[in-house]
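Annotators were shown the component list below and the corresponding predicted structure, then asked to write short factual statements about the assembly.
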Amino acid sequence: MDLLFLGTSAGVPTKKRNVTGLALIEETGSDWFLVDCGEATQHRLLRTRLSLHDLQAIFITHVHGDHCYGLPGLLASAGMSGRKKPLTIIAPAGIAEWFKATQQFTQLYLPFEVDFLPTEALDTWSFAHWAVDAIPLSHRVPSFGYRFTETAREPYLNTEKLTADGISRGPIWGQLRKGIDAFHDGQTLKSSDYVHYPHPARCVVVCGDNDQPELLRTFCQPAQVLVHESTYTQEVADKAGDTFGHSSAALIATFAQSIALPNLLLTHFSARYQANPEQSPSIEDIRSEAAHYYQGPLFLAEDLARYRLAKTGDLSLVTS
Amino acid sequence: MDLLFLGTSAGVPTKKRNVTGLALIEETGSDWFLVDCGEATQHRLLRTRLSLHDLQAIFITHVHGDHCYGLPGLLASAGMSGRKKPLTIIAPAGIAEWFKATQQFTQLYLPFEVDFLPTEALDTWSFAHWAVDAIPLSHRVPSFGYRFTETAREPYLNTEKLTADGISRGPIWGQLRKGIDAFHDGQTLKSSDYVHYPHPARCVVVCGDNDQPELLRTFCQPAQVLVHESTYTQEVADKAGDTFGHSSAALIATFAQSIALPNLLLTHFSARYQANPEQSPSIEDIRSEAAHYYQGPLFLAEDLARYRLAKTGDLSLVTS
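Structure shown to annotators:
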């Protein structure tokens, strides 16, 4: 599972950072999910190898424009490029209504079906290799986090034990490997005695805007990676006297440390933070504040940076 | 008056070209008008010196997304950057309804007033130095062209004639210069006898999508510049067997030649046309087809290219 950031800016785009969008790419390198779709997400996609034909589903965290205004254009372009495959969009209810109004008033006809499912249902949505569920967060409007949990893991079949137990290579091996118990020589062979998974299921939590990381304590328990906003440093938030429903670097880092989170991936930075560390304030202010409170592997997302979550649960920057 | 293109692609963005947007910039270099606002128009603006605080009005030609999906994000960013000044948007009625729905469903609050005026009224809208009127075109949805006519021209006062007529320098000169008749030595002095305008009023026509240039024959009569779509070459249009309501290079160029248009500025090119003339089909195919039918000064717009309409009526590319 790769995480490719299409936008890492809060509220407004900057010359270097677009507003929010994140592609989660399957092992194959083609099938992918999109979480949030700020304006010009489709423009960022032109600089990747991802195709709108391979997009499996879109998840929207909340109705604010910097997380959804790219949706009509992206879907229109998918249509113009000939997509026919239905597309699932999991989003707060307002998004479906807004999209319907957009279709009506701008005479947008799509050659594929769009199935809107309300995030508020808090279902578990199943895809080929991943299950996704959601959690309500705290922001100025209803905002959600999405948890992607791997369901199709590679099993390890203990062939030494099978051989030692006198079960020779054959269809039974395949059956056990698939998790199905088998009957052999008058005995029931339990799949779980011969199969195990060398690594826990991969699990990534991607959150919308949120000023109460504490809400994620249980939800993040199985996660190897948390992608969370870090709009300001605490100093800036204190000076403004209002967080506008956002988290500071200190707040989210303190939470991550308290749950011993394996990897913290910060994004959604206020436009005031310069990419150039020689200018002030810079994105390095966010990094140093977060690093002060969180001792685990810390990543600050950049537009078009791609991170890989290995089967081992390790997260690393992919350098091409 | 400068014309700065923010997008020159039809339908979908490409790596080099954004969807439609055009800034018309006043002599001062700061006050400006926007015609059409495709997705990521605000991103293009980050690469110019134009400020959303100096934007005088927005004109939308028609409701298709590649001409308007950038509107909510651009207005949201204007609000976040502290704009308080009301903004006039002249647009087909569907745009106002769509924007209202967008505000409602995405909880967008602006700290300034937006006054929507329907293009369908075909009024003349007056601004400090320009009057703007509109004309209905022919497309799959109602589409319009806007004509910008200079109203605040620099008058030339014939001081030689004034001196010869025994009227010496004084307040009367200023009065006549302003176009007001004056009383002097028992005689009425007509301003028009002493004042003239060395050049005709500048006039630019900017059109939305349109497959019948002929509709513009009278409207374009005073124009020095026509900005018009040229989505395909005729060969491509013929192959497709459907123009989808668009003009070919041959069609618009033939029309421009027939009215002896002073300057033809083409834009809104299908994504298939490559910027690199060594690839095929390239934008040069459009250029050579248009040049075959139109012998006047021909310009093919590029993203972020800036053209200047001089007081003389000459159009030229501004090289910085």
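Statements collected:
1. The radius of gyration of chain B is 22 Å.
2. Chain B has nine helices and 21 strands.
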